[in-house]
Fold each of these.
Amino acid sequence: MGALRRLAPDEQVSLLFLILFGALALVSVVTALWSLRDREGKADDTWKTYLRDLRAVWIGTVLFWLAWISGPVGSTVFFGLFSFLALREFITLMYTRRSDHRTLILAFFVVLPLQYAIVATRHFDLFTVFIPVYVFFAVPVVSALAGDPERFLERNAKIQWGIVVCVYGLSHAPALLLLEFPRYEGRGAFLLFFLVAVAGIAQVVQELASRWLRRRPLARQISRSFSWRAWFIGAFVAAWVGAALYWITPFKAGQALVMAFIAAGAGTMGEFVMKALKRDAGVHHWGNRSSVTGAVGLLDRVAPLCFAAPVFFHSVRWYFKL
Amino acid sequence: MSRADLMGLLLSFIARLITGAQGHWKGCPPTARQRIYFANHQSHLDWVLIWAALPKDLRTTTRPIAARDYWTATPFKHWITREVFNAVYVARQRTDDQDPLEPLAEALRHGDSLVIFPEGTRSNKGEPQPFKSGLFHLAEQFPDVELVPAWIDNVQRVMPKGEVVPVPILCTVTFGAPIRLEAGEDKRDFLDRARDAVIAQRPRGA
């Protein structure tokens, strides 16, 4: 540990990526060897889902690395693009009318770039209120100016939701990269990694726990696997993993435990909420399975992050008075 | 790489960024056979969408139809339709001594594929309007050319009539199985069958 601490921040971050890519490469090699074996179950859905998820983790890690090496501007551009694609997917599956056209243009081409410009320039106070206050007000004004009262509240609510989840929520990821902790300069990547790691672990553990427990689902219409106990086990395990990772964060072990619990719990809850939204829109995956659109299922991947990132970010910022 | 190639790359990149421009080849593979693609027509973007959904090597030999008076009016319009899209120009006003389909037949004789919108005009009522007879005459003259129906979905939400800026919404182009003109088939029957083939490609739930 001592030797690690003496490394420059840059070297520590490089080491983090080296370990990440190493672990992924190892998993991929094992997967490749496994797939050589003649197995009957290979064509089944679990295997396909596993391969899909492995590919998604690879893509995510590479993007994370690219975001990091390209600096503050690069990382905001990267996450901005993510936001754009996620919002595109979200809006595609929502009911919008012709009269929403101008409002949607506002969301895609004004709100989204502005929010990310505010992140890149580290104006975190404005960043916090820009969408909840100013955009919340501007969207219905532009909609009302279009002069179509039909299902007005519903249409606006959908667009507001899309903006908050896909733009506001996701923009907290680069904000974590850029947040300046005293005596923690240049290590923002660890904070984002911490968040993604605990949120991901909570998701996996919750899934496994729900299969193992076989509890009666809390809301069968929305999710067949969600139960309080599974949720708690997921967040609890993630909290301990977070505590074990405290040395890569600016937190003490106890703080890391609590922060990880908050982030992980918010992430899995967020995923649950997204499931409800999907049911409402009449799709199982956001992806292209239902053949409604040409979506790649990006929203499925980023949904936990969209909810976990703002909660985590603001908890950190408030607690440490940054 | 010429300026026209760069422009083509830029346009297909924008089309993909805004709409995804996903091609679903359900009824036939995207091969270099000579074809007439015929599709529903809801927006100005329809052609760009089909074009961006085609594999890159098919784009150069697949040509749109452009109204001569409109698309040669300014140097830029002329350049983009001629150099980038390699459009086939047709006259909108019918003159007595000339067959309006002659430029299309010329392109087909040359071995190119075409994209046509047989409704003749944009419709935004959901269901395509009855097809004009051009498709029938081309099918009669060129029995060896595959007739591929295609449905372009969601594009009317991207850019409704009268708007200039497109909204990013995912669109798909679904290509169906080729149809052919049966021996002795009546013109109206064939055109209705072609229209049904296009509607059949519409994704479920849309």
Amino acid sequence: MRGVSARTSLPLILIPLLAILVLVPIAFMFIGAVLSGGLLDPATHFTLEKLASVYASLDYLRTVVSTLSISALVAVIATIAGVLLAWLIARTDLPARGAMEMCVIAPLFLSPFVGAIAWLILGSPKAGLLNVLARQVLGIDGVLINVATQGGIVAIMALYFVPYAYLTVASSLRSIDPAMEEASYLNGAGVLRTTLRVTLPVIRPALLSAFFFIFVLSAGTFAIPAVLDRSAQVRFLAVDVFQASATYPIDYGRSAAIGTLLFWVSIVGIAGYRIASRAAKRFVTVTARGYRIRLVRLRAWRAPAVALVIAYVAFAIVLPYFALIYSAFTRFNSDSLFSAPWSLTNAVAVSQSPEVVDSMRNTLLVGVISPTLCVSLGVLIAYAVRRLRVRGARVLDAMAMFPIAVPGIVFGTGVFWTYILTPAYGTIWVLVLAFIASYLPFAYRLSETALLQIDRALEEASSLCGASHSRTAARITLPLIRPALLSAWVMVFIFSVREISAAILLTSSDNVVLSVLSYNYLDYGDVPKAAVVGLLQTVMLAIGIVLGRFIFRVRLARAV
Amino acid sequence: MNSGLARLTRRGLIAGAAALWLPRVPRAQTQRDAPAPDDLIKAAQKEGGLNYYHNSDIDTTGTWTAAFSKKYGVPTKNMRLPSYPLYDRWLNEERVGRHVADLIQITDPTLLSAAAKQGFVADYKPAGGAHIDPSLKEDGIWYTLTLDYMGIGYNAKKVTPDEEKFIHDAGYDALADPRWKGRIGTATPASGGSSYAWCYMFLHDLKDKYGEAWFRKIAADKPDIYASKAPLFERLAAGEYAIMDQGSQGSLTDFFLKGAPVRWVFPKPTPVSVTTQSVSAHAPHPNAARLFQEWSVTAESEELWLSLVAAGASRPDVADPRKAVRKDWYAESWYADPTELYTEYLKAPDFADPKKPVIAVWNEIMGYQGGRKG
Amino acid sequence: MADLHVRDLVVRYGHVVAVDGVSFDVAEGEFVALLGPSGCGKTTTLRCIAGLESASAGEIRIGNDVVARDGRETPPERRGVNMVFQSYAVWPHMTVFDNVAYGLRVQGLPRADVQARTDEALRLVGLGGFERRYGTELSGGQQQRVAVARAVVTAPRLLLFDEPLSNLDAGLRERMRFELVGLQRRLGRTSVYVTHDQAEAMVMSDRIILMNRGKIVQESSPRELYERPTSRFAAEFVGSANLVEARVDGPGRIVIGDLVLHARSAGETPRQSGLLACIRPENIVPVAETSGENVFEARVTRVSFLGATVNCELAVGGLTLRAEFPARTRVNEGTTLHVRIDPAAVVLVSDDA
């Protein structure tokens, strides 16, 4: 009869906590949308003009349609590519699968902002390195690749979101009961038929959730279209939000009003995601029994498959990092590849900058504290909702998913107003608070999925052995979902290290992080130093991920 | 990127070090300024620190404020953001009573004037301010530290000698020539205060000579339009396009010093982007803030800036030491200082008036859909 | 160890009533099977006893402790019961030893006791030497043994089994039946065993509680359940039976088809309609005589040889009856023979279908 008290008391703590972390910042967006100017500007007054200019304009309808179609296109491409890569790596005898997996998720290490700059260096029509190469080596006259087009922007955004699709789908592919596929082989179906008729339908919920997830994320991404779209032919809500709130003249009302529009777009995506992931529960296949996954022999398809993965790796990692390294270690980006002005000046200057040391320390602190607290909160909410079935579980569930619908820059503004009068303001803690809230949906979703995949009997057996709720949670539930929690931690770690839009709005002299530093270098026109800092950031992320995987591997080999 | 002060280069670093550590040079110049009052120094030291909000290059500013700290024993903490977000941040903090910044440095002094009207700027007149031309200060409110000149930039490897001669001879009309079809780059006036000022000059003060018709000729050349300035300069140096408007000396010299084939010319009148600075009314370290404002407009401080970056001084008695010895771009035959500066917009009451549709007009002419600001 | 009392147990999920007023008792040391088709409410009843499911109404008492009444429930960890799960629920992140020792460690026993009792439990289920293995490295049968050892090691007052053998292959299942019974007899634990397999229930339990649609259909010893089913459902679910419409003709006499049959139980049944005669196939025996009590002529319409027995389909008095003869009986399709139906083995049941 103790369980009853936890069912009532836990929501009493969690709901107010989430209200402050999540709802208050979002509320500031809606308040901002009906104000004519900044929140405390004496000239500011209530107005519906900003909302009207956004909601009641045909022009904006076009932008909404364009945003929806670009995001959907990005999501489709990224999901298809992610599924293909996940299937090759998880289910076939492709060589070096472990290394391949690292390569596939490597685009996560690069902040989209720095990545977009890298692609500008690579793929601008005349001086882009790829086009230069095509001219100088292959003798191709004209433009080989142009990233400053709608197609280019969609392709590069898709490239950045492939890892999300991969991660969602790969875990699903690994947890399929192989008997389902074996049954299909025994019925005379070949690999292709089995994959199309059995494997894909079984993981369809995972596919759909990956699709909606990427849809929402790409709708909220401003960096890639903002940097690449030179003639601004691409209409994109997030870019407008950014321009209204960060470029001249600043118009917060408009930024917030567009933000609310983007909010509704994202809510639609989240609803789709929730439906898809609810369907996923019907396909729960993880039990205490271990399955041995049967690998598909690629045989003659091996070479093309390897070529495909290598092509992806080239476009997603090798080329952008080459561009960054090129930029970091030359005095300036030139259009001559072979007589490039190589130099260590930038690296030396950056390494001597005291700002870099400070921001590395801050990044490390934020990068460790945020995911730790975020995943703890996420798993606590997931446990309360799925296991304790607390009162107000639906409310908790909705609150934990909300932040994904709010673009970072709008959310950052809300967080700014929420904490400006608290001691956290201006310290790394305000960043930690912002990141906990922003990435709670990820931590919560991963914990929840993991919880749903555990056979309840595993926990019930513990209760019947006399263990209390907390002991069962600590000894059985947490160890069983540890792999998922680790991936959630690594994911939030990555996000926290490379996050930029909220970090800019909350930065101070005491909490500068690498992403803000690189943004500032870039803003001031110093692409090489921004590239050096971007590389530093990547190194930090890579170390974190390799460590995470190492720990993950150890556990994997030992037990689960 | 608004101010366009050039980045810290290796050469600049050595020059800066010389300015910092060799007492001979600074002493010769400080004689032009009376020493700061002792009681102000003592009070500033007692406050123990200073928060500086700025929008210049991080490393240059760090070197520069370190010189102040070394001289007066007052450590500074710097925070950099682009001008508009920085200004907005400061104002929001002041309005809720969260006083963090002691001084604010941005490239749009019209904003500082507006903030002064709302009581957020301390009325303080540093002694060195007297040397600054009245057009470059609002006495007691803001003072210009350095100037960045804007002209036509081009990539010498992407133009013929004839074309180069044409750029130097034709003035601003050179930009509107059809020969640049597909070879010209620009940035939107929404990308920053300096771009805005550039467009403002042509659309308002020089409306009759240039105006919309001139922009339409540029539009006919189908320029590469950049939403922010960093890639605009970077791509010129890389050779993506041959010629640009809004060519700020600060950014171009940086690429030039790194060996990029960029050159520039200043037609008349030459718009100037200014780096300006005010003391915050509720500065948490009021004395340190005032001492810093005093020091910022001394010849010593401005000379240090000029030795680190390519910029013009706000004080006529201060010159770039490189110019005297005709070093770097000063040694180039194609280079000429600007002769007639355009600074009128700094005091134009309607400069930032949203009713003056600089951005909207420009967007319409260029067929640009970005930054739809209604 | 304790006895178990379940009174008027009701479990509702929304509009669905999974368990509908179930009452039964299990005596100390008794082994009772809850038998029934899937969805009959047997597992839900078991989970209510364990405390894994909440009762909507009713009372559950273990020994002298009321563990569920009026929505007040003792949590499972305080009921002193343990359970063997259908999926075994062997924790994959722990070794065999840690799995079994878990409950003892929860009780805070000294290390030496934990070691000794765990070793003993593992020996009991024949898993000595497997201590260091992980759950996922074991076969299904071995995991099952781990689950059993884990359930018995805490010396629960009540041992619950939730279809523990259903995931095993046939041979192993049969062997495990006897092992489990042997174990239960040795330990003497009060046990409730849920299964849908009637053979399993018959072999293992002292008493069978047959359930259907959330209700108890019949509660009796395995033999009585087989020999004296009280309903069509019971007769059909347990063993095979010829069920034919019957009419009571007089004391000890019924009519089925064209036959007048002596049936001992006929007098006990006051109902005249909706009755079925249940005749087990093995109770139709071939006889040499051509007349006598319950002796009828039958034509053999189909024969299947099963080794120990011969199954025949017989046409008797306008009815088709299945009969099971000893293997030595020579019968051929199309021939005629005489059979006798034991009057004591004819049971009248209500047609509840």
Amino acid sequence: MRWLPIFKKEMRLYFGSPVAYAFLALFLLITGWMFAQIFLIYSELSMRAFMQPMAAQNLNPTENVMRPLFSNMSVVLLFFMPMLTMRLFAEEKKSGTIELLLTYPVRDGEVLAGKFLAAGAVYGLLLLLTLTYPGLMAAFGRIEWGAILTGYLGLLLLGSAFLAVGVFISSLTENQIVAGSATFGALLGFWLIGWGADAAGGWVRTVLQYLSIIEHMDSFGKGVIDTKDVVYYVTVTAFALFLTLRALDAKRWKG
Amino acid sequence: MIQVDHLTKSYGPVTAVSDVSFTVEKGQIVGFLGPNGAGKSTTMKILACFMPASGGTARVAGFDVFSQSMEVRRRIGYLPENAPLYGDLGVGSYLEFVAEIKGVPRGERKGRVADVMVRCFITDMQRRLISKLSKGYRQRVGLAQALLGDPEVLILDEPTIGLDPQQIAEIRALIRSLAGQHTVILSTHILPEVSMVCDGVVIINRGRVVAQGTQAQLVQQVFPTARIEIEIGGPRETVVAALRGIAGVLRVDDLTGADGSGRFLVESPRDRDVRGEVVQLVAARGWKLLELHQVGMSLEEVFIRVVAGEEHGDVAPALAAAEGAV
């Protein structure tokens, strides 16, 4: 249970500096704007549906508002998550505090768990705050909470993969800017790789689609939990965390 | 309490520490002396389990720093060079974090933190952000975190660096008060600090131990005879002959330089003080005694002789004697 003091320390650092506030406020501002636009278009469509009852059959607030919002949020997260993870190890290495941290009676795994869970907690808080959007929709009409919770499960899994990749890259450098931009580059790469799928055919298409980090978010948005998507995110998270432990170990050996 | 055996550490092609061996007994305070880049910090990092050695072994409190690292880490307090701390935390909350991570039980934490803050004179600063502290206060917060959890062994890398003279005196008194219950190894390049604080000394240069022992032992081994330096106004040859005539004088060197000031170095056995006789002799002959002082008695002179001498490769005999000392 030695991860707990590290978790608490990281939370103090997130909320004792502008990092967490900037992360939360900017993300909510951007996604709030997106939500408003999608919502306005949707209400326009609903108005028209009064005139053409046929079109009304396809209208569904969960499908037409929340699903596009989930996919927009996934892309915005790609830009924002590096903000949370870039300092986790890079800052400790730069300031030398890692030397004290790694000589306290805690295992590397506990240090990593404390840091990863702290970043996860800030992200979790963010997701809670974005519940405002479906909450607002629920005030105006009926929505399918089951599908929305599934979407949130998807965001949680996607986010943990993003965070794990970020933590790993942060453990490789002592420069926060490098950690942040490399994480962004890696995540962007994992997304863009999926674009190649459209042009390719056959098994290449399947592989590229499977690798694409945001592609797997799609079925969660539809309210479907597909094992292969869960496995994908869990694997990416676990593998990145495993690599982080190896990087910490290697750091000891190289000095 | 600390046993270092043939320890070697290389960073790629650079050997930072080479075949270092020494021991520190329980309750002792040992000073780790050496010029910059001698390998002091590297040795301390290995003892604190921050990085493994390339060769040799080190045991702290009976546990191997590599294979039983957790056991060692539970028993040490470490202050790395320059006291790296989290600037964005307050002094009090930082120390509470350290107490928690070192496994101080919840009920005792507040009391223990308050206690180390008093001992390190930082109680007034507990609400301050660490990044707003002066160098001296940061250093003391670093020392406070090392003391938390009441570790058996303290590894302090330059604990008094950046402090003002008054603070240095306070911190030295604090470290001195740890002797007995705690075993302390501290590195420094301030020689008088070692004389004031430490029981034993390990001198390291270019990654090798060049001398170790208590201060008195080192002085005796490096300078086996008592020496006095005198300046006398009088005819040089006659003076030398007269000095040689004093009973117990082993050797007289004429150090007179180009300015013709008449300086002489007189060596005698350590238990034979010839200063009184020299003064009487000068007075009896009607010469002028301009200066008289003892040399080769301080750690500083030992250090310079051992470290500088090693560079010229001419201290082998003195060192061979000193090596087996502790």
Amino acid sequence: MKVSRAAIATAALAAAVLVLTSCSSSNSTSGKLDPKADLSKQVLTISNWAAYMPDDIPAKFKAKFGTKVTVTTHATNEEIMAKLTAGGDSGIDVAFVSGQFAQALAAQGLIETLDKSLIPNVANLYPEAANLAYDKGNVYSMPYSWGTTGICYRSDLMKGSEPTSWMDLLAPKPQFKGKVTMLATERWLMLPAQKALGYSINTQSATEMAKVKDLLIKAKSNLLAYDDTTFYDRLVSGEAVMVEAWDGWCNYGIAKNKNIKFVIPKEGSDLWADTMVVLKTSKNKEAAHAFINYILDKDVQSWVIDNILYKVPNKPAMEKSLPALVAQYPNMGITPAELLKGESIVDLGKASALYTQIATEVSTK
Amino acid sequence: MKDLESNKERDAIQRRALLSRLIFLVPGVTYIVVLMLIPLGFIFVYTFLSRGTYGGIETVFTLSNYTRALDPLYLKVLLDSILIATITTLLAFAIGFPVAYAITKLPAHRQNLMLVLIVLPFWTNFLIRTYAWIVLLNTQGFLNQGLMKLGVLSQPISLLYKPSAVVLGLLYAYLPLMILPIYSALVRIDPAMREAAVDLGASPSEAFRQVTLPLAIPGVLIGGIFVFVPSLGNFIVPELLGGGKMIMVGNLIRDQFLKARDWPFGSVLALSMVLMLLLLFFIQARINKRILGVNHA
């Protein structure tokens, strides 16, 4: 009797799981957008990284369109993905996610094809910005900022041995051992070894990834730490002399110490982009489009350049802000053509488990 | 005699209040069923299904998630985590017991003050407190620079980004969870029992070993579980103080859900943690029963 009761309970649970998971795959149908919709009757919930856009955006947007805007924040791509893919309506209309995550959302049919006629500011974008591998032509995502990854280092503490290759980071000279950090997020954890070995940063080959793993394990013994958040401060304090860094974050170090420099290693690097997407579940799609259009405005985008020290794919904004910044932050001067030499990060599909397993193997060695 | 009477009275009140008690139980039971048992059921079912490319599950039956969990790679993470959590728990006991004992020896108003001081760190965000250790311990930090200024050190020593730093961080975070249950066990011991032991010829140290210590064991066990379980599952401390150079089972589970998008395998790992926790509580209940001769559930 006990056994059968347990079996019934299990079966009931299994049924509940099936029902709930099948529910989540049904989506609201995407009707035609109405260019004349009354935006003051719509409300928007935006999810973005904290402090990644001007604080006064909701107030200004409401003043202009009458739309109430609520901003929620996420700390990582993974966090917002967990919310958006949990099934049902997340309540979010526009989300800021990195390009490869926009790609994964599109593959699951969770985000809307963008109606460019409602985003006239798309004309502000560099032509190169429509040629990003995760979403060619910006069909379902609009780039907000972009950049690359390289080595950020203290030129005064590394005089005569300035890094030029990813191997300088992976196998540092004896005097620099233990004074090096690498990024902890999987894709960038793999990148230096992938590029040093001449592989694609999007490789799905298990044999290539096995070699990447071996190189990363060797590199680990010379590392101070894996660090995604405080690496530039470690350069400022001198605790580290070179770190794997996103270009914009290296600028935060440069702002505190002008001996800090940024270099893209000779083997090449990535091209990352943070994007805006409209959720299929949004009931305020006209306002969502108007919001994206508003963000692509020259002045809003130049705020990003001035305050976040990130490059943006917005031509008039870069032309406005760059002259004042480029002397102090040379990597702001990297041109779109140069950026596009970097490999665009795309979603790994099923191979994401391979990357996590290799990251686990590296961290247990 | 007085005790017996009050017991009788209490029984009567309990019988009369049975119905209202059941009503009071409803929110708690609903909470446990809806927010714990049902999700746990989901996790259990997920462990037998296949992963979806973008997370979630595909309804294809498989046992491979279980066989994969036995891979030496994951067993090593589990064993390392158990080792770290065990060391943390033993250290917490070694530090926490004397502290709790000392507090019970203070006058009552001082005891309250001490207890407030012990929970005071909880008023600050856990992340900030953990970052504070980095500020203190890094090679350019207060400790190293201070010791170098005093001439104790000529070179900064690296204190961070190793397993000992992880133990330190966990110990700091969870020590209050050891002190409080031990204190509450010690403070409940009737002083008459110790006095009786001494009157019957026990030396103070014998009285401590044969009366105080055994009666404190339930508190020690609870404290042990309170420290061990969150230490085992913590993934922030290994990341920050361990420099991401080692991972614990908490990191492993989080990464399966958020990075690998492998919910079924993450579910197996999560379920095995839950089973370990149940086993610990079972052992604790058995020991309690043996010591006190009653079942304190």
